[in-house]
Amino acid sequence: MALTYRTAGESHGPALTTIIEGVPAGLPLTPEDIDTDLARRQLGYGRGGRQKIETDRVQVTAGIRHGRTLGSPVALMVMNRDFANWSEDRMAIWEPISEVKPITLPRPGHADLAGMQKYETDDLRNILERASARETAARVAAGGVARALLRRYGMEVRSHVVQVGPEQAPGRDDLVLADFDGVDESPVRALDDDASGRMKAAIKAAGQDSDTLGGIFEVWVFDPLPGLGSHVSGDARLDGRIGQAMLGIQAIKGVEIGAGFELGRIRGSAAHDEIFWTEERGYHRRTNRSGGLEGGMTHGAPLVVRAVMKPIATLSRPLASVDVQTKEATSAFKERSDICAVPAAAVIGEAVVAFVLAQALIDKFGGDSIVSLDAAVDRYRAVLAR
Ligand code: EPS
Question: Fewer CB near the last or first residue (10 Å), C or N of the chain?
């Protein structure tokens, strides 16, 4: 069975739900496998008041027994503590709308206007509740399970923030796993202390101006098994699957793999990673401009994916908009939000990349049970070692 997940949940509804299908039976899991990443997603300088209300923890309602998966759908729930403040009126589930006025002033850059047209509603809350990036907690929960699966076969997923607004960290293409050890201690999840300070200051300045900031983050996967993904069809290529997963995160507007857009500026002789072989290391490369992917497949070098997040669209000094009921020119509506969420987006990026790789792992090796998956991976490793 293919590995898939689906989330449900509104930002200020009772809870977020994730259902994962196709997890092999017998995978050992602990609450920390999921909760650690849920907590990491809540960090980062520039978050708004909501993160003081929420303390995200997973509740498992199906698919796990005695700390091991059953092979049945795994159902994960993350409660929205803020629902208690919204359940009586704005997010009441059964009671008809009463005094609560519909929101009719769409925010430029949000799903509001197109969603209102598509779903034929005059109340933008019907759109924004699901468009909200609160939903990403449910994806990070799915990522925790995927990460446990990858870790079993030696693959580790990390991330760091490389740009916030105009502030950049020095480019690094030589990172090793240990370089990421302290990254969660940086307030913006940057590896370089000086860049971290500059990024934090930029967020502070944007906040003082009632404005928001986006940025760029990188996800690295260390020691990917070679041969995940496939060249045989466009939708099997890992580049495409990763692109879809990354661009499916709220506010992500661009993705690069390896040297990315830079490859459009250089010659072929400088663009590709020459192949070497030694008894000790087997096949290896001295550069990684391909970002670990050739022909839509991992080749064993670290997978390197970069994504850009646009500045958050909810502005406390709102941009021009139109009242959808009266068509009068006005300002977009204001709601509590973050100033910058790029550090959190990097953790979400880890989760979605982990899930795509875990899918590719299951696609290649199958696995109703972890025992059969282990055996298939061992056999393949033996073949590669020849
Ligand atoms: C979000 C708006 C804010 C963020 C939210 C994403 O929510 P609220 O309006 O309740 O303050 O806090 O992110 C989260 C709740 C979260 O857990 O990441 C938005 O409009 O996308």
Answer: C
Residue 98's pLDDT is: 72
Could you identify the atom of ligand 1 that is nearest to the CA of residue 133?
21
Rounded to 5°, the CA angle 122-127-133 comes to: 155
Q: What tokens were used for 91? A: 């997010």
Domain range annotation of the chain: 4-384
Q: Does domain 4-384 have CATH number 3.40.50.300?
A: no
Is the CB of residue 165 less than 8 Å from the CB of residue 22?
no
pLDDT tens, position by position, 125-151: 999 999 999 999 999 999 999 999 999
- Asked if residue 111 has its Cβ within 6 Å of ligand 1, the reply is no
Q: Whose CA is nearest to atom 16 of ligand 1?
A: 134
| Cα–Cα distance, 116 to 102 (Å, whole number) | 12
For the Cβ of 212 lying below 6 angstroms from any atom of ligand 1, the answer is no
Ligand 1 probe mutation, 334, 337, 347, most atoms within 8 A of CB: 337
Residues belonging to the chain: 386
Pocket test for ligand 1, best of 50, 334, 348 (most atoms within 8 A of CB): 50
- Reported as a single tens digit per residue, the pLDDT across 322-343 is 999 999 999 999 988 899 999 9
Distance 253 CA to ligand 1 centre (A): 19
| Tens-digit pLDDT profile for residues 63-74 | 999 999 999 999
